[in-house]
């Protein structure tokens, strides 16, 4: 994920900044506790496609 693109993206639910996790190919929002998938290099920024993070993952 390109750093410039990451700086432009925010969580559609909370509008908080996102953290890129290369190992899971996800964009993480600790505020809304959601992980948005990246499929074929494209972030899927729909709340309905995000998975909920466990308390441990939010640290």
Question: Which secondary structure elements does this structure contain, and how are they paired or packed?
Answer:
Layout: H1 3-8, E1 19-21, E2 26-29, E3 34-39, E4 42-43, E5 51-52
Antiparallel strand pairs: 1-2, 2-3, 3-4, 3-5
In a few lines, what is going on in this structure?
By secondary structure, this protein is mainly β. It contains 1 helix and 5 strands, in the order αβββββ.
Characterization of the model:
This protein has one helix at 3-8, and strands spanning 19-21, 26-29, 34-39, 42-43, 51-52. It is 10% helix and 29% strand. It has 59 residues and is mainly beta. The mean pLDDT is 93. The relative contact order is 0.20. The protein is globular and about 25 Å long. The protein starts with a helix and ends in a 7-residue tail after the last strand. Strands 1, 2, 3, 4 and 5 form a 5-stranded antiparallel β-sheet that branches.
| Gyration radius, in Å | 10 Å
Give the beta-strand count: 5
> Span between N and C termini?
21 Å
User: Which band does the percent of strand residues land in?
Assistant: 25-35%
What attributes characterize this protein structure?
single chain, 59 residues, mainly beta, five-stranded antiparallel beta sheet, 5 strands, 29% strand, globular
């Amino acid at each position: 994920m390109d750093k410039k693109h990451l700086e432009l993206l925010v969580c559609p639910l909370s509008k908080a900044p996102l953290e890129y996790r290369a190992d899971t190919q996800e964009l993480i929002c600790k505020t809304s506790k959601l992980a948005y998938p990246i499929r074929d290099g494209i972030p899927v920024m729909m709340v309905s496609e995000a998975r909920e993070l466990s308390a441990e993952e939010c640290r």
